[in-house]
């Protein structure tokens, strides 16, 4: 019975040392540099203008995405929606002769 307990303790020690060694050698992973806010805004506006919403990028912050970037994209999309509604209303209104 004592040999099983000793084996589990030794195995746990090896796991702890292995995880520590692996983390010290390889680290936590590559940290991405922060996005340039002006470049990101320009690229997001181009992507929204082209209708390519898959290309929209937001910088990650502690609790999600950077709010001003999200607000900018939402504002741009709402402008496009208003323009589309005006165009639809203009095209669907009866023409007077």
UniProtKB/TrEMBL annotation:
It comes from Corynebacterium marinum DSM 44953. This is DivIVA domain-containing protein. NCBIfam families: DivI1A_domain.
């Amino acid at each position: 019975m004592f040999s099983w307990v000793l084996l589990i303790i030794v195995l746990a020690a090896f796991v702890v040392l292995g995880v520590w060694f692996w983390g010290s050698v390889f680290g936590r992973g590559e940290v991405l540099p922060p996005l340039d806010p002006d470049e990101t805004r320009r690229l997001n506006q181009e992507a929204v203008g082209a209708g390519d919403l898959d290309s929209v990028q937001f910088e990650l912050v502690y609790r999600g995405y950077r709010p001003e970037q999200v607000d900018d994209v939402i504002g741009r999309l709402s402008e496009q929606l208003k323009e589309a509604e005006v165009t639809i209303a203009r095209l669907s209104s009866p023409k007077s002769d």
